[in-house]
Design brief:
The chain is mainly alpha-helical. The chain has one domain. Helix content is 57%, strand content 7%. The chain has 7 helices and 2 strands. Strands 1-2 form a two-stranded antiparallel sheet. Helix 2 crosses helix 3 and helix 3 crosses helix 5. The protein is elongated, with a radius of gyration of 17 Å.
Length: 153
């Protein structure tokens, strides 16, 4: 546990800033979009090749399914090592404030709060610019931190 080890060694912990967070999100977005395209193409097969748009009787179900896929994508990575592919690439790790791995209930809280953060014109992300630990709304709500894993940082 990086957080606990650095505390024991009396080192200061470096937290990830907004730009690196956004770069990891963009990186992850490519993989997530591929999954969403696959899910959409499966749905289109059962809808005679037509997209399901607003006004379609299954639209709410379809959007819910896409959100579940997004949650499972992020939740699995967060609870299995604390790193998505983008987070590994940009050398950062998500963990609880006490250094423990993220649990599924915390991943759910984090995901829902991140959706709210994006929905509020990204305000929840920009919050990290004013937080000493560079925490966003979803970090605060899920009691987590995003730790910089770069050596010497």
């Amino acid at each position: 546990m990086i957080f606990e080890n650095r505390r024991i060694m009396n080192e200061s912990i470096n937290y990830v800033g907004l730009v690196r967070r956004l770069m990891a999100i963009i990186y992850d977005l490519f993989l997530l979009l591929a999954l969403l395209f696959i899910a959409t193409s499966v749905v289109m097969v059962f809808n005679q090749g037509k997209a399901i748009g607003p006004g379609h009787p299954l639209y709410a179900f379809y959007v819910t399914c896409l959100l579940i896929i997004c949650f499972c994508f992020y939740g699995w990575f967060w609870t299995h090592g604390g790193q998505t592919l983008g987070m590994k690439t940009w050398k950062m790790k998500l963990q609880q404030n006490n250094g423990h791995p993220v649990t599924w209930p915390l991943a759910f809280i984090r995901f829902i709060t991140a959706v709210i953060s994006w929905s509020a014109a990204g305000l929840g992300f920009f919050w990290s610019l004013f937080s000493p630990q560079r925490r966003t709304w979803h970090d605060i709500a899920s009691n987590c931190v995003l730790v910089d894993l770069r050596p010497g940082k």
